[in-house]
Amino acid sequence: MVRLSRLLRLRKSGFDTPLRVSRFRYVAHGANSLFQNAEVEVVENFDGTCHLKSGNIIRLALDGCTNRPFYRIVVSKRTDPRDCEMEQIGTFDPMPNMLNEKLCSINFERLKYHLALGAHPVKSVRRLIGLSGFLPLDPTLLIFAEGLKRRRKIEELISSQGNATEDDESSNS
C-alpha cells in the first residue's frame, strides 16, 4: 500500500523526495522558563508538540554594485526590509576568486547565540551553514543536486542523439 503523501510528492515534484525541511525549532515541554525573553515565545501545536516562535530571522543583506554582488549575513526582524539589520554575523562573496573559491566568513559564537534564541535562518543561509560544517547539510541542497544531476544526464542524452542523427545524415549523403 502506498501512502497518499508519497503520491502527492511524486506528483508535485516528479520524483520521490524522502527529505523534508521543517520550519519549526522544536523544544521540550516545560521549556517556557528558559525563554523568558520578549522576542521568543514557546507555541504548543494541536498535536502536543512545542516549537519556538521568534521575530528574528537570519538572512542575506545585499551590498556591492550591479555586476559585483556582496552579501552580509545579518540578524534582523522578520518584518524589516532586506537591508535592515540588528547585527551582522558574517559575510558571503558569491563571485569566485582567482582560485575559483567563493568566500564566506561567519561568527559561529553569535550564530549559535541567535539560533538558541529561536532565530530562523533562510534557505540560502541554511545552505551556507551546512556547507561550512556547523550544522548538517540542508536537505534542499541535496534535492537541488539530484535535479541538477538529472538535468545534465538529459542534456547528455539529447546531445548524443543529436550527434547520432548528424552521423546518419553525413553517411547517407
Describe the structure.
The protein is α+β, with helices and mostly antiparallel strands. The chain has a domain at 7-54. The protein has 4 helices and 8 strands. The protein has a 5-stranded mixed beta sheet with strand order 7-6-5-4-8. Strands 1-3-2 form a 3-stranded antiparallel beta sheet, with no helix packed on it. A hairpin with a 5-residue loop joins strand 2 and strand 3 (50-54). The longest helix is centred in the C-terminal third of the chain and has 34 residues, at 139-172. It starts with a helix and ends with a helix. Residues 1-14 have low confidence and may be disordered. Belongs to the bacterial ribosomal protein bS16 family. Pfam families: Ribosomal_S16. This is Small ribosomal subunit protein bS16m. InterPro entries: Ribosomal_bS16, Ribosomal_bS16_dom_sf. It comes from Clavelina lepadiformis (Light-bulb sea squirt).
Number of helices: 4
Number of strands: 8
Mean pLDDT: 77
Q: Please trace the helix and strand order, writing H or E for each element.
A: HEEEEEEEHEHH
Structural class: alpha+beta
Beta-sheet strand percentage? Answer: 25-35%
Range of helix content: 25-40%
Strand order of the largest sheet: 7-6-5-4-8
Net shape = elongated
Low-confidence stretches: 1-14
Gyration radius (Cα, Å) is 22 Å
Main sheet specs: 5 strands, mixed
Instruction: Please give the alpha-carbon distance between the first and last residues.
Output: 56 Å
